[in-house]
Amino acid sequence: MSTSPKMTKTMIPLLLFLLLSTTITAYPSLPTDCTVSQGGEKLVPVRREVYDDGRIFDISHRYTADLPSWESKDGLGQFLWLPASMKNGSLANISVMKMPTHTGTHVDAPGHMIDRYFDAGFDVDTLDLEVLNGPALLVDVPRDQNITAEVMESLKIPKGVRRVLFRTLNTDRRLMYKREYDTSYVGFTTDGARWLVKNTDIKLVGIDFLSVASDDHLVSAHLEFFESREIILVEGLKLDDVPVGIYSVHCLPLRLLGAEGSPIRCILIK
C-alpha cells in the first residue's frame, strides 16, 4: 500500500505523539505510598530482591565492601572509586571498579583451574549462553553434609534436567552476608562432582557460596566439572526465600576476553 506525501506528513506527528505519550522507564515503578520529589524532599531509590509481584527473583548478591572475598578476613573492601566527580567540576560522574573476577555472584570458565584450557583461550567469552539461560530446578540439599555421591543420588534429579541450583546450609548460615571468608562452607566433594558428571544431564551447576567445591576438595572437585568443558559453574548465588521448584533462569556474564571468571547477574522467573 502506497502513501501520498500529504498522508505521510500527517502520520509522522501522530506517531511521535504515540511514542512520547507511552511511559517507558528502566527503573521499577515506585510504591504507591511514595511520590516523586519536587526538589525539597530527599530522593530515595527503590532497591528490590523480588519483582513483578513475586514472579521475578534476583538471585545475585549486591556488591558491597563487606562482601566475603577469597581467603580474606576483612571482606572485599573498597572496590569502587570516583576519579571523575561532578562535585569537583567534572562533566559527569565516572566510577572505576577493581576487584577479583570471582567476587560475589560469578561464573567460572574452564581455564580457572586447568591451565591448558586457559592457554587455549577457554575464557568466559566462550561460555554457552544457552546453558546459562533456560528451565532450571532449585533443590534443597540435606543440611548435615557436603554434596557427596550419596547425596546426589538421594536427590533423585530426573534425567533431562540440565540446570540445577543447589541450596545448602550456606544459605541458612548466611555465609555470603559475613565479611570473613568461612572455609566450613558446604560444597561438592570429588565423588559428588564425579557422580553428577557421569549420571545426570546437568550442564549448569549453581551454588550458594563462592566455591562449588568444598574446601577439602577444592581443586579435585573443580577438575571433575571442568574437564569436559561442558559444565558451567555459577557460584555465590542468593537463594534466600526462594521456594523450591522449577524456574526459568537467566544468567549473563560480562564478555571479558581472556578472563577465567566474571561477575554475573542471575534472575529466576516463575
Which helices and strands occur, and which strands form pairs?
Blueprint: H1 5-21, E1 50-51, E2 56-58, E3 80-84, E4 94-97, E5 106-108, H2 115-120, H3 129-132, E6 133-140, H4 149-155, E7 163-167, H5 169-172, H6 190-199, E8 204-207, H7 218-226, E9 232-235, E10 245-253, E11 261-269
Parallel strand pairs: 6-7, 7-8, 8-9
Antiparallel strand pairs: 1-2, 2-11, 3-4, 5-9, 5-11, 6-10, 10-11
Helix pairs in contact: 4-6, 6-7
Q: What general form does the structure show?
A: globular
The tally of strands reads 11
Tell me the strand order in the biggest sheet. 5-9-8-7-6-10-11
Low-confidence stretches: 6-37
Average predicted confidence as pLDDT: 89
Give the SSE string: HEEEEEHHEHEHHEHEEE
Strand coverage percent: 15-25%
Largest pleated sheet? 7 strands, mixed, barrel
The structure class reads alpha+beta
Number of helices, where a helix is a run of at least 4 consecutive DSSP H or I residues: 7
End-to-end C-alpha gap: 43 Å
Q: Helicity, in percent? A: 10-25%
Q: Provide the gyration radius in Å.
A: 23 Å
